[in-house]
Fold each of these.
Amino acid sequence: MSALLVQHPEMALFLALAFGHLIGMIRVGPIQLGGVCGTLIVALILGQTGVRLDPDLKAVAFALFIFALGYTGGPQFFANVGKGWRYGLLSLVEVVAVLAVVMTATVLLSLNAGAAAGLLAGAATESAVIGTASEAVSRLALAPDQIEALQGQIATAYSITYLFGLITIVLFTSQLAPILLRVDLKAAAADLAGRLGETEGGGQAALPELVGRAFAAGEAAGASVADFEARHDHAVTVARLRRGEATIEPGPSEQIQSGDILLLVGRRAAVVEAASTLGPEVVRIGLDMPLVRRSYVLKQAQAAGRTVADLRRLAPLETRRGVFILGIQRLGHAVPVLPDATLQSGDVLELYGAERAVARAGQALGQATPPADKTDFIMLGLGVLAGILIGALGANLGGIHVTLGAGGGCLLSGLVFGWYASRHAGFGVFPAASAQILKDFGLAAFIAAVGFSAGPDAFRLIREYGVWLPLAGVLAALIPASLSLFIGHRLLKLETPFLLGAIAGQQCSTPAISALVSASGNSTPVVGYTVTYAISNVLLPLLGPVVVGLAFHLT
């Protein structure tokens, strides 16, 4: 079997992907390793056989991953750099604190550049650091075998410290931090959701069911459609009228007459409230109409930075009438649809209502989400090429040659291309599903390649540092999180659910936000998470070459 894998390394790659993601699915309480760490563990084991992947494949896989990462995060990154400064400050705390802890451990434990970078990647649970740090190691003035050994130690140190960093941030955000703040997290999250408003239209939950029901006009007779809808804060819409044998799609100025039958569409609680002013409910003969759900990427500059409530209040009546926001997606996470939820450029809004009304509102907000079966490979090719060229640039600072490398260059290129695409409809179509495939496969293939080469040195590193390396991983996760908790609570006065979500985001930890949402009982922590996640997802990978350069000159 070993000889077969060495002869056909592509078999070893897919074996590592399959069994690695199988291991990554195992969950113990809120802790789950995930496919990347699982793939690395399997690759380290298979690496004992001597299997290797072509370095060119490793480079291409990482370039695609890091460009897709930057592209999908670009709109949110630039939207949050200035406006989300309070949350963004926590990402800076993360970068400074984790760098200080890692460099202190480097001196005390005499870590080499590879182990130091692996500690950073694992403790911060940021897999992209492995790629940027590996590139930085390849540029050191060392023999090829020394470079390969250091790159292997990045992967090994990451695999050792990742689990401890992950457990630390999950338990800290969902369990320990609320105790330190003396806060009932579930009660605080419920109170925050209540103060923000439970829905954009006044219903009973963050994402209530929208309904259509027909009633006789009753007391509404004599009022205009606009007046009737205004009485109910536009949480319901008179979608159709049945008058005798005629079916009418009324405008705002249409007068409701005695004997009319009204088809109301809106949030359940609002429709129930409106029913108390109407006649009896009737069978909707000749009134039923199709309602659609459509997703649009928010690009309207006037809407970005506004709350959901602002959007409803400021939008022209003909634009907002009969349209409801069902969901908000930001960086792949659902943001609660609350009146005070702030919208950002690049948010994906799911609109619900009659097709013409949804199309009208969607066109005013941005553009429909791109088709899921088409990728602009011209943009993708030029974007990665531009990133590689940017990464080749460098400068000497204090005797240290500083360069972003292909990884850092592709990350910046992806950020710019993603931001530009969010501002210009039709440019660089890169569906979310396509980007996710590139991120998942690119990173997993890169990690597998690194794990294969690191295999022979894995156990030596474990024997050399013993318990001290995992302990350093715990401290490198705990100290930045604790500092952010103090600064966010005492100085920035952030609401507890938002603050804890931001702490999970500053470490780019999806398991942490999942555990936090479960502990909170609602999705309010996601609001803070998406801001710091977008910023840390850029800053932490760029920190990889910095740690390599500093550790190399210290040891």
Amino acid sequence: MRKWLGRAGFALLIVVLAGFVALTSWEPFWAKRSDVRLSDTAYSAEIIRDEFGVPHIYGDTDPDVSYGVAIAHAEDDFTTLQDVVAMARGRYGAIAGQDGAAIDYVFHLLDARGTAERNYPELPADTRALFEAYATGLNDYARQHPDEVKLANLFPVDGTDVAAGFALRQPFFFGLNGVIEPLVNGEPLRPEFGPPTPATNGSAPSANDGPAASGAQETAQSRPFPLPWGEMGALSGSNAFAIAPEKSGDGVTRLVSNSHQPLRGGVAWYELVVESGEGWHYAGANFPGSPYPFLGHNRDLGWTNTVNRPDMVDVYKLVMDESGTKYRMGERWLDLEEESVTLPVRVGPLVLPISRTVYRSVHGPVIRNDNGTFAFRYGGIDNIGQLDAYYRLNKAKTLDEWQAILARMDIPSTNFIYADKVGNIAYVYNAAMPERAKGYDWRSVLPGDDPKAIWTQPVAYETLPKYVNPASGWLFNSNNTPFIAAGTGSDLPESSVAPEMGVELKQTNRSRRAWKLMSQPGMIDRERLEAIKYDMGYEREGYVADLWDALETLDVPEAGALGQARQLLLGWDFSADGKGRGDALALLMIREFMSAEYQNKPLPDAREQLQASVDHLTTHFGRIDPPMGELLRLRQGDVDLPLDGGSDTLRASTLWDVQEDGRLSVKHGDSFVQFVEWEQGKRVRSQSIQPYGSATTRPRSPHYADQAPLFVQHRLKPVHFWREDVLANAARRYTVSHNPDRK
């Protein structure tokens, strides 16, 4: 008997070990593909790195340069590039566990791969050549550095894989996560543009059970269902400024890009300069997974972007039959498309295969919850024309050519602020908003059985809000309504746009400050423009007014810690410059109110928030009024520097991690900053800065955080746009190449 039990135990152990081995090794074999279309083209690029490690990439052809972009970026941040590739292949859960699996679920839900496969072959041949070269660069780097590869069989990839990453990421810039997340969790959708619940001074805020709407956005801190690029979707911001020569005081046309993005990860900026023998010459920044910059300038013109929040998503409740497999559309019953997908989910050393089912209808992706079966449809669905549009924008030479590319409506969203060498400035509220029929409440859940409620195309470009050379001589955007952009007498009226388009009407503190500062009399010269960009003030309007109104009526003992904190805030100077006694306390209070207002959530309870802020400061600093620079930090490796600015100031420090010592390590806010200038009779010049450096995931690199001291001092570094300047400031120069015949 004992012998039999011993044999059974041994057999069980073998089974357990076999299962363990299977769960640690199945995923790469499951993911191995034979359909990768490898390029048979040879590529060669020269990479010159300047004193800050920024790559300047040269090639005879545009694909040569694109190949070099992939190599240079991989040298600086291959870990993030792999994350992006894994997302674009539905394998991120094998790297990042449950959070990664949520992204993989959305990858399948949106049919990102199918979108790429259907549309990639229709792109122009030269655009596809760019993406094939970029994919080849990633493959070559992975092959040459196998010890850095996170996931077996992640490479090789091809242009379709890179395109799938674009199809997955773009909808989250206009807040698609704010629809998917509550639908998955069976929660009410909140209206994007409605007023927030007022702040209270002691009673709990009421829940907002508003109707379904587009673009409602969530914080990373409170999501039970993690979503891709959640922080970006929740609190992305940016500022953009353009000054015409007649307003600049010295005849110089100026463009300022001041993006607010996560400082690390898949939507963190990477600076580069590209130049080819085919006329491609551009200085700017891209995201991991892109063969070209998304913003910056060429010789003749430049642009920058800010996230806008148009009503781009519509939700439909489907009428299902008793079997739950068919839905009604007009007089017909259609089969609900159903696909079973496997999500790899890493748990420690194991990768578990989790099966999920995704659904689709003629409307688009479908999500089932306890409240019913819902479909959603969003602007730019099943379109990857942006892959070609950004490439063409990089090479545009005139305002007319640039606008003609935007007019294709291939780039689903983001505001564009523009300037050029002949003195034009412009602002386009770019959004492929659906051309919706009249007679529906597009902010509510729509009838899923009405075929007339399904739109098929975007509105015409001519109907979008836009400005070209306003009389004021200046333009700006700070993630606010496009009807506040150019000053009194130049701003567009709200009535210029049909209400069913869903153009946002909100302002931010940054927009109130920018409009006020730029509207003051006189020229906006370089010095004044820099002061505006680095402004750290708050206006007592909107959610800031709600907070201070609540503080004024808050009933707390004056002698206690809450009373002292309240008095400190009531006497605050409304500037997050790190000089006032109340700056640290105000920083903690405003952040939560700004977050709630931006996302149309109920505003926090003022007493509870004040208590939490006081507790944090007294616990970690022993006082309620520490210098803000001791609280707010820019940290990267051994670099630990004081920061200024706050949530929703023009000098933005928006999101942070609370670390063990109680300091706030900023992870989202001012990121890539670029000043571009065209002076009459002279070549374009520019300056830029990033919070860390060009090699943010390479601790041994001298460029891991070498820009940080300049960044915290509000200083810029030169952009070496012209080759002779690059050579004069070269720290390293080398050639990378691909020979398809090489074994």
